[in-house]
Amino acid sequence: MCRWLAYTGSPVLVADALYTPVHSLIDQSLHSRLGAETTNGDGFGLGWYDQEGTPGVFRSIEPAWNDQNLRELAAHIRSHMFFAHIRAAIGSAVQQTNCHPFRHGRWLFMHNGFVDGFASIKRDLVLAVDEALYPEIRGQADTEIIFFLALTFGLEDDPPEAVARTIGLVEEYDRRRGVEYPFQGTITTANGEHLWAFRYSSERKSRSLFVSRDVRTLRELYPDREVLERLSDDARLVVSEPIGDLPGAWVEVPEASWGMAGKGEDQIHSFKPKQPDKAVAVPA
Amino acid sequence: MCRWLAYTGSPVLVADALYTPVHSLIDQSLHSRLGAETTNGDGFGLGWYDQEGTPGVFRSIEPAWNDQNLRELAAHIRSHMFFAHIRAAIGSAVQQTNCHPFRHGRWLFMHNGFVDGFASIKRDLVLAVDEALYPEIRGQADTEIIFFLALTFGLEDDPPEAVARTIGLVEEYDRRRGVEYPFQGTITTANGEHLWAFRYSSERKSRSLFVSRDVRTLRELYPDREVLERLSDDARLVVSEPIGDLPGAWVEVPEASWGMAGKGEDQIHSFKPKQPDKAVAVPA
Amino acid sequence: MCRWLAYTGSPVLVADALYTPVHSLIDQSLHSRLGAETTNGDGFGLGWYDQEGTPGVFRSIEPAWNDQNLRELAAHIRSHMFFAHIRAAIGSAVQQTNCHPFRHGRWLFMHNGFVDGFASIKRDLVLAVDEALYPEIRGQADTEIIFFLALTFGLEDDPPEAVARTIGLVEEYDRRRGVEYPFQGTITTANGEHLWAFRYSSERKSRSLFVSRDVRTLRELYPDREVLERLSDDARLVVSEPIGDLPGAWVEVPEASWGMAGKGEDQIHSFKPKQPDKAVAVPA
Amino acid sequence: MCRWLAYTGSPVLVADALYTPVHSLIDQSLHSRLGAETTNGDGFGLGWYDQEGTPGVFRSIEPAWNDQNLRELAAHIRSHMFFAHIRAAIGSAVQQTNCHPFRHGRWLFMHNGFVDGFASIKRDLVLAVDEALYPEIRGQADTEIIFFLALTFGLEDDPPEAVARTIGLVEEYDRRRGVEYPFQGTITTANGEHLWAFRYSSERKSRSLFVSRDVRTLRELYPDREVLERLSDDARLVVSEPIGDLPGAWVEVPEASWGMAGKGEDQIHSFKPKQPDKAVAVPA
Questions:
Q1: What is the pLDDT of residue C284?
Q2: Rounded to 5 degrees, what angle do the CA atoms B22, B27, B31 make?
């Protein structure tokens, strides 16, 4: 059910993060170790920030492992913040409009996991999306609806609050339908300056999520790795599962938590979905 | 804005209708004469009935003119009733879930035209779709919503009534938003036994629609055409614009009308959208 | 490095062989057990014989597991002889012209395996292809060249002889370049009446190959399987690895052998590549 | 039969050249005015130079006009030299390996036109390609073979000489087969510092080719066009047919000529194919 990677730090070539010598994200499209699905071959997406006003997004419905265009772009795009996602479709079609990351203005958003019983509550969730945003929904994936709900709930102002309210709504609607564990997964979102990552599942057995250690620590651990010299001190990689061959380089993000990185700031907090107010008209 | 072809009659090879020597539907994907767009290269679809319970559907996002798979299938599929559609996308993505024909059970449905101001009323239209059908909506095209509205309004029992109510609803919602000419186009739908075709536009300047003449008449006109000998007397082709090089073989379907063909029965009637009852809760 | 399936017998729906409940060929596109590669997601192909003069071929560059068109075609095409192939590309591009089965006139041909050091001897092999056939080469896969060499060496008259001479030539050219084990794999070819299957590798550790047992035996083993009642007595499936959940239903094809099936005839023989005659001008 | 555009000058966003308000190259994919084919929807390619060692290449088999990825890349890639090509396939498959521009090391190469009777002489032409380059041939297009012949004849050292020898060889081989007008078209090639463009056809009725006027002249002609202020004085666009709405901005490249641009140098010379030396072993 997907794997992803997000980078923030000094500008690097996307290929440096994507095509690492050992167990790269691209390798994981064929052979994931920690994913719910070992193969993530139902398309992929790349989103990156540069000097332009909105991030660029490249999506494809082919498996990432043999995609020549991805290889070309990764070898030519330098960015200080980028997202990469490989997809294992569960239910929705393999088409570009279902590929992550999703974008709205300067915001990117991606997800590994699922909404249980999504088909039953999709209509209700879509109705909860801001009517002004509704025409922007292009695909049929659960993640896209989650993204538009988060936007509806103020993602651009307060990402942790918006995601908490979104997952709270999903849990509320799903539980009314008798679903025990409505939400599963990890989410990341960014605005080009900071990125936020979330790990949460209703069952409290969330998909794996890791963040790279402080670069200074990494340089001490691996003084011979030339790539670490090129990174700024505040560089971070957030990944579904560790890439590369650097034992000790990764810290697992705790169950039910969220973190922020970018521009030298790092935070980690516990995460709890927020139930809808009475004021929100929940369908009976 | 798309071109299409529908056949009913004795089983023929799809290629016989699709790859005619002169101005075939496939040629029209490159060079339509009567279409609003001369190029219809944003994917295509083929739907066909055979002995299986539901019709087969083959869709592709590539232009039809050079598609090898379409050429192969057309040269091997024999069918007594089939639909072919070439698409010129206006707004919605080029993806298989937006390609016609759409299918529900034994029903196929396709369209050439558009709903004006669709983005503004899409949400309201989607809300009018039967909740039980809602999870089946897969794409983002206006035609798919029209199809699901028609199903909601009883397409499987009374196609002309259901299409009249659907277009009536579109006109009602659109006019509340100040759109002058809400609906434009031609529609065809079938259940494997009969097919229905509609030509209507709010502006009364509908996209072109033609039906082939009675086969016995055609044989008299073209005694040397061996293909006509192989057709049953009740065979009919309904097309967006004439194919082939048979002057006199085509009759234009009148503005604002609908017809039925199949199983030896032929009818033509005038068509008028049906405004929603008061009982239907129209969003304020 | 690919998995494949070939059927001969009374006409069946392709889906009956392709989408078996347990460990189907389509499952193997995600999780092969016996293949050199566990994922075979680099496109697929389907070739089938019917009443038309040449077999139909449907090819796609998407993974088979989520392909809607394959699902549709398999549910509608009935055939007395068909080939299905799922690809794990090694070196050559993921494009339809590299997808098996390959076709020439009434002949289909597919392969699981590889020519070691192919890049080095490709030019010499291509030069050995009949000049009249040369313009038909469309892709860049080793298998396509092998097919055209086999045609050059009389595949249409004597398949075992032609394949023996082809592999003999590959071994000769490769060994001059110092390659120890030039050829690896299994091959199947058919003309709509009979099919031939080959299992051979220069190293004598060939990719797996199985053939289904005699249908009468299968019916005794599995009296409750209704599908077996529908099959003719001479029906055979030849597969890279067993499909379904019928222990005892499969016989492994011996190392270095070839067999023939179709029209009630079954044969199995040992296989030995045939070195090129002195008369064949081998490049120095 | 294809349209193309090449830019050299101060770094600009690819979109500035590709998505001009009027009659852009992307519009020409739907409606070319001067092309042999009005629709160029059989894939496209983009090649660009940046600070990396080799140029990037992005290719797609979809029509350019609705391609979201092309739109994204064009809006994010800045380059001082880039090529864009839209294809109208004649004979060879619609696949990425047949899409221009072709690349070898730092060299890009693209073409609008064809080799008449290519199928008959392809084998001979391929034999004339340097054996060391042979394994790099990936597709089946005539242009790719022309590129590899030009490389064989020293493209990297002397492009005009190499192209003259290549077309000379094509003419020689084709005329032995009785083809009257072997070569047709325009070619452009670049190494990241200079670009060379050729206009030639054996019939002396070559496909159209235009080059933008001196930027200082353009600024005088169009003092209000802000985009011209951003361009360096030596910026040049070379195009199959004029883009945009700037009458007087384009100069037609004369029949049978070649030109060079880049790094402030501009040249134009007459072009004449060079017949193969006796020394070259021409197949009998």
A1: 45
A2: 115
Residue D177 near chain C (CB below 8 Å): no
Cβ contacts from B onto C, under 8 A? 38
* C60: nearest CA partner in chain D: D95
Mean pLDDT of the region B71-79 = 96
A82 has a chain D CB within 8 A of its CB: no
Judge whether A192 and A81 are in contact, CB under 8 Å. yes
Write out residues 88-117 of C within 8 Å (CB-CB) of D. 93, 95-97
For an interface test with C, which of B66, B72, B102, B103 has the most C Cβ atoms less than 10 Å from its Cβ? B72
- B42 shares contact with chain D (CB less than 8 Å): yes
Strands (E), B105-167: 107-115
Give me B4's structure tokens. 């299409």
Query: Is the per-residue pLDDT at D284 higher than 50?
Result: no
Average pLDDT over chain A, rounded to an integer: 92
Q: Is the peptide bond before C101 cis (omega within 30 degrees of 0)?
A: yes
Q: Do B140 and A95 touch (CB under 8 A)?
A: no
Across D274-284, b (16+ Cβ under 10 Å) vs e yields: bebeeeeeeee
Summarised one tens digit per residue, pLDDT across range D88-142 is 887 789 999 999 999 999 999 999 999 999 999 999 999 999 999 999 999 999 9
Closest CA to C238 of C259, C258, C212, C216: C212
Q: Give the torsion sign (CA, C30, C36, C42, C44).
A: negative
pLDDT bin (cut points 50, 70, 90) of residue A229 is: confident
Q: Which residues contact C226 (CB under 8 A, 6 or more apart)?
A: none
pLDDT confidence tier of residue D179, bands split at 50, 70 and 90: very high
- Residue A283 confidence class, pLDDT cut points 50, 70, 90: low
- C42: which chain A residues are within 8 Å (Cβ-Cβ)? 63, 66
Q: Which two three-digit tokens encode residue B256?
A: 């604002």
Mean pLDDT of chain D: 92
